[in-house]
Input
Amino acid sequence: MITQLDSQKPPQELSIEEVLTQTFELYSRKFAIFLIPVLIASLTTGIISIPLRNYVEGAMADLEPSAPPEVVLKWFHTYLPTLLCMTAVVTIISLIVNAIAHGICIKFVSDLIEKGNASLEEAFHFTVYKLFSLLVVTIITGILTALGFIALVVPGIILAIMFSLVVQVVIIEDVGALDSLSRSRRLVSNRWLKTFVLLLIVYAIILFVSFVGSLIGTPFGGASLIVSSIIAAFVQPILPISLTVYYYSMLAKEEQLRVPPPPPPF
Output
């Protein structure tokens, strides 16, 4: 599927409002194309999480709140190994499918901006080609950011801002995971607050809709995870689209700083 769109790289740095405006314009014009990979990833994560949730609920039902220490220890020996294995499988599959979905969205937006046309099939194949680097950089940034939040919260926020464009760099500039870390830091340099505000707005939208989706999904019982995943999928493409638009805005900022000012008039 090839899509054409009159689009081009921003000639200058965009404001947050302009980034969000272009994000929603791209998403609304190519809604189905962006939704399909994210919806598949969300459904996959929701479906494979059902056995894990059922196992946890069954295990907790076998543990009395007032159980003595020896019973609790036996409970851990009985359920913990299986729980850890199931959690690891769900986490790995979720990482893979979400990395592919976000990579497809990023590549698709990038091709629209740079070439005016994009192919969903080409975006998929390129993302699979870069999958190892995407997984490595996702794991590295995830661990570093989590440690930052555990430490004092503020370091976690700083690291989240610093590495906010690593996936875009891996996909668009076709570099490795480690190189993308320093490149993302350079792109957002001197724009820490602006990047933070953009991330805050985008994540607030996603978290709000996800929360509403979980409330709507609650009456569906065993299928609640699937229902909430479907609802959340409708807003999740906003993250890769907005950060890709923001990536090109930061490229424009670099170009502006690189071009020397005109000579003063005589």
